[in-house]
Amino acid sequence: MNLSPQIIGELADRVLHAQDHAHTITKLTDEHPSMTIEDSYAVQDELRRRWIARGDRVIGMKAGLTSKAKMQQMGVHVPSFGILTNAMARPENGAIQIRELVHPRVEAEIAFVLKKPLSGPGCSIEQVLDATDFVIPAVEVIDSRYEKFKFDLISVIADNGSSSRYVTGGRPRDPRELDLRTIGVVIEKNGEIQAVGASAAVLNHPANAILMLLEHLHARGESLPAGSFVMTGGITEAIPVAAGDSIVARFQDMGSVSFRFA
Length: 262
Ligand code: OOG
Ligand code: MG
Hints:
With 262 residues, this protein is α+β, with helices and mostly antiparallel strands. The chain has one domain: Alpha-Beta Complex (Fumarylacetoacetate hydrolase, domain 2), CATH 3.90.850. It is 27% helix and 28% strand. It has helices spanning 5-21, 28-31, 37-53, 68-74, 125-131, 153-158, 207-219, and strands spanning 58-64, 80-85, 95-96, 105-114, 132-142, 163-168, 184-189, 192-198, 229-231, 239-240, 246-251, 255-261. Strands 1, 2, 4, 5, 6, 9 and 10 form a seven-stranded mixed beta sheet that branches. Strands 3-12-11-7-8 form a five-stranded mixed beta sheet, with no helix packed on it. β7 (184-189) and β8 form a beta hairpin. Magnesium ion binds at residues 62, 64, 107, 109, 140, 142, 231, 233-234. The site of magnesium ion has 9 residues, from β1, β4 and β5.
């Protein structure tokens, strides 16, 4: 860690204000070039403290930048992890308010809900599947608080991996009944196909994103409790959206997730 607790707290306040009021900020590393990845996860810890203090509930975690398409789109080649709260969840078939966001994009992801706790390192895909209650289709709405959606790994982690909203839908499935490497995904905007992919794009198997997340958590003395909701990262590049757009993400054998932007 290179930054003092006081500066970490100030950065968390700045990021939280930008998230809550949908405005951009300059990359944190522009002002603090010595900032480390540890510092940026410390900013996340402070965000979490602030969310809990105002009554939000942590419901799980997300892995991001876990597919080549996403890494290439963002120019960042290392996965990032972030915190998900109930305040970010939105219902299927509803409208997401664009005025609450800066420059949102949508991503199709496979989400896991755990029935048993998981801790790393050294966990296997088999253990992840054993601990999984069900997998469910999800669309994440990411919204970087950095100008022009441009950032580096350290800055995006401090912005909680651009998390802003997420919607689940379709059919919850037993992961044992699917081949989680070959789930085809189609993202449509206003009835037109924007991206297609298969779930192996996420680290060969989306459960690998959970294994990486467990290693990350272990290094910080944390783990995933039973009941955790975990998003494993966009399978294709993220699609920009505007007011009036309707989104449908179709997942092979898992149903679809639909909603619109107002
Ligand atoms: C970082 C978050 C990436 C994913 O699924 O890859 C992410 C970003 O691209 O803004 O959520
Ligand atoms: Mg994502």
